TrEMBL record:
Catalytic activity: L-glutaminyl-[protein] + L-lysyl-[protein] = [protein]-L-lysyl-N(6)-5-L-glutamyl-[protein] + NH4(+)
Name assigned to this protein: Coagulation factor XIII A chain
Main location: cytoplasm
Species this protein is from: Urocolius indicus
Function text: Factor XIII is activated by thrombin and calcium ion to a transglutaminase that catalyzes the formation of gamma-glutamyl-epsilon-lysine cross-links between fibrin chains, thus stabilizing the fibrin clot. Also cross-link alpha-2-plasmin inhibitor, or fibronectin, to the alpha chains of fibrin.
GO molecular function, one term: protein-glutamine gamma-glutamyltransferase activity
Region (Disordered) location: 1-32
Length: 735
């Protein structure tokens, strides 16, 4: 919107009584800037052509030119200049005659939004000086030749992040002459982790390459006993993604003047990534019904989601936690905030934030699902963003948890963070934002409660080590897993851990003490169980082991409940009930196997092939109850990707995706997707049927754009089978 039309004047937003200027939260809107700003009456003989006039402006915006090379922005598919703040960049101005400093005066103007104001950082006039001060706006001439001058321009290390418009203004005795509006000179300014004065400064080059410049990542999923991984294409440099990310800040109505602050940017983004309460990017769905959208497991990356949202302005269906986290990571890396995707295994979703997940057992020892409201997610993904925290005491900067998955509201909206990882570790949960919620996700205890006939609640067992057992992210510079549990918590059972917990409780995290209810732990008999690893479609067994440490004979009435669950730990249905009596001899181990047949589970299986087993045993002689739960995930077959022919940038190559149906049933309406940043944009194809044991083969031709090590990522999806992935590294040669 470059010209203000008469309808615009009628549509001007009403001024409210508190502000002289309406709020300015659209990077897209513009004001009209006069090309001739007269000081008064203009004499009749005045001819603007007699004065210094700008003929052309060169932005050096090509990927191979100095600006994008020095600013690490050469990977962005954008014809415009993209630079990082607090670091000098070059432009060249061609005048109609040689520039004479003693008589000519010109300056630059950078504007953003519709109501530019100097005190808001949305109107920036820059005079040409002799020196550039680090981290402050300024310009100096580095080279003069004929009618041209070369300028080095420094932006402020705290300036607004977004798309600025550039004007060159020339002073004449009768008024100011400006260059006309020219979108080719628009300049994107991003956060700068390479600049020491920037709030997102990161001092390790290898980490900057990973957390800013890597456009592919790994999502760890599955569960604690069976960790699975898959690739995710962030695609932060792909065409129009930068504009889509800036649009998200407009959508979240973040004042332009606040867009230089990574804390504010992360906080509003964590709300706008999900569609709850603000029509944001992704609609979440956890019910296994994805009729009017794409199943969360089918996405292979963020680009399709962001571009669809940018064009339709409507929430994209559907996402679950890794999709929210993947898109959030793209947003952060695209704008220049170092970011990584985190997986927390056995993540607590604590409905009443009392650091305790309450599982209520009935008299038989079965879990009562009607009153059990808390759940354990097999895993939960969130993001960490790197920044200083000047709003908190010293020592709480660095990695901050931000989470775009809509779980609980914060200040009235579904959002979470930024919460300092360091503050969570030490229990200082009083520091904004949302630290108590994240603390509970990694530190809650599981409490098994049984209500007796007389109404008294008895605690049967407290499990203090099940939650937050493992917290991981992708390693720097490789596809392996890096454990970061120690960033979030001290060693389980250590003195420091107790102290951190006491600190958290002191700062208002509610923690019930066992004194509230009767609790006598069972000491005579220990129980454990193991689930055999199994491939989808096959039978497997659950082995339950008792260790009787006493000198007595015991009989344990044992109940195994097998449930098909969403990865959030919420049960869909119980597919296996098995009760038996276990005779336990004194001072001995006894093992009992229960077989699970594929026919028992296949018809009801959900996307992630997740099971949850509860085993409870009641010892007849003492009335004591043993309880334990474990999640398990089946092995899902993978897609195979092959390439043919030479792989050279700019030349056609061929990619083949293959898949063999392992089930005893025909797969119907199967969608396969394939993408690879820099190699091919997402392509998808529908296959009507794949009979049992038959193989699907799909060949795709593409022309890779960029040389270097690239990744191809594929997914297969249908109602009977989800979370089928394949990937392949390819080395694209230079032409």
């Amino acid at each position: 919107m470059s010209e203000t039309t008469s309808t615009d004047k009628e549509r001007k937003p009403p001024l409210d009584g508190r502000r002289a200027v309406p709020s300015n939260y659209s990077n897209d809107e513009e004001n009209e800037v006069p090309e001739m700003e007269a000081f008064g009456l203009i004499p009749r003989g005045f001819n603007p052509k007699d004065y210094l006039r700008v003929v052309d402006i060169h932005m050096f915006q090509e990927p191979y030119e100095i600006n994008k090379q020095q600013h690490h922005t050469d990977k962005y598919y954008s014809p415009k200049l993209i630079v990082r703040r607090g670091q000098p960049f070059q432009i060249q101005i061609d005048f109609n005659r040689p520039y004479k400093p003693e008589m000519d005066q010109f300056w630059l103007e950078y504007l953003i939004g519709r109501y530019p104001q100097p005190n808001k950082g949305t109107y920036i006039p820059i005079l040409v000086g002799d020196v550039l001060k680090p981290g402050e706006w300024g310009a100096k001439i580095t080279h003069k030749e004929n009618n041209s001058i070369r300028l080095s321009i420094m932006s402020s290390a705290t300036c607004i992040v977004g798309k600025f418009r550039l004007y060159v203004a020339v002073w004449t005795p009768f008024g100011i002459l400006r260059t006309p509006r020219n979108s080719a000179t628009d300049t994107y300014i991003l956060f700068n982790p390479w600049c020491q004065q920037d709030a997102v400064y990161l001092d390790d080059e290898k980490e900057r390459e990973e957390y800013i410049l890597n456009d592919v990542g790994i999502v760890f999923h599955g569960n604690i006993n069976d960790i699975k991984s898959r690739s995710w294409s962030y695609g932060q440099f792909e065409e129009n993604i930068l504009d889509a990310c800036l649009f998200l800040m407009d959508k979240a109505e973040l004042e332009l003047s606040g867009r230089g602050n990574p804390i504010k940017v992360c906080r509003v983004a964590s709300a706008v990534i999900n569609s709850r309460d603000d029509n944001g990017v992704i609609a979440g769905s956890w019910d296994n019904m994805y009729t009017y959208g794409v199943a969360p497991s089918a996405w292979t990356g963020s680009v399709d989601i962001l571009l669809e949202y940018y064009s339709s302005k409507q929430p994209v269906r559907y996402g679950q936690c890794w999709v929210f986290a993947g898109v959030f990571n793209t947003f952060l890396r695209c704008l220049g905030i170092p970011a990584r995707l985190i997986t927390n295994y056995s993540s607590a979703h604590d409905n009443n934030a009392n650091l305790q997940l309450d599982f209520f057992l009935d008299d038989e020892g079965k879990v009562d699902t009607t009153i059990t409201k808390d759940s354990v997610w097999n895993y939960h993904c969130w993001n960490e963003a790197w920044m200083t925290r000047p709003d908190l005491p010293v020592g709480f900067g660095g990695w901050q948890v931000v989470d775009g998955t809509p779980q609980e509201t914060s200040d009235g909206m579904y959002r979470c963070g930024p919460a300092s990882v360091q503050a969570i570790k030490h229990g200082h949960v009083c520091f904004q934002f949302d630290a108590p919620f994240v603390y509970a996700e990694v530190n809650s205890d599981i409490v098994y409660l049984r209500r007796k006939k007389n109404g008294i609640q008895v605690i049967e067992k407290i499990d203090t080590s099940h939650i937050g057992q493992l917290i991981v992210t992708k390693e720097v510079g490789g596809d392996g897993m890096m454990e970061i549990t120690e960033d979030y918590k001290f060693q389980e059972g250590s003195e420091e851990e107790r102290l951190a917990l006491e600190t958290a409780v002191m700062y208002g995290v509610k923690k019930q003490t066992p004194q509230d209810t009767m609790y006598q732990p069972q000491t005579d008999v220990d129980m454990d169980f193991q689930v055999q690893k199994a491939v989808l479609g096959s039978d497997f067994k659950v082995s339950i082991t008792f260790r009787n440490k006493s000198h007595n004979y015991y009989t344990a009435k044992t109940y195994l409940s097998g449930n098909i669950v969403f990865y959030t730990g919420v049960t869909k249905n119980e597919f296996k009930k098995h009760t038996f009596e276990a005779k336990l001899k004194p001072s001995s181990f006894s093992t009992f196997d229960v077989v699970i047949k594929s026919s028992e589970y296949l018809s009801d299986l959900l996307d992630q092939a997740s099971f949850h087993f509860f085993v409870t045993a009641r010892i007849d002689e003492t009335g004591k109850i043993l309880a334990m739960q474990k999640a398990t995930v089946l092995e899902i077959p993978t897609l195979r990707i092959k390439t043919q022919g030479e792989m050279v940038a700019g030349k056609e190559m061929s990619v083949t995706v293959e898949f063999t149906n392992p089930l005893k049933q025909t797969l119907e309406n199967v969608t396969v997707r394939l993408e690879g940043p820099g190699v091919l944009r997402t392509v998808k194809k529908m296959f009507r049927q794949i009979p049992p044991n038959s193989t699907l083969i799909w060949e795709v031709k593409c022309i890779p754009k960029r040389p270097g090590l690239r990744k191809l990522i594929a997914s297969l999806n249908c109602d009977a089978l989800r979370h089928v992935y394949g990937e392949m590294n390819v080395q694209i040669q230079k032409p």
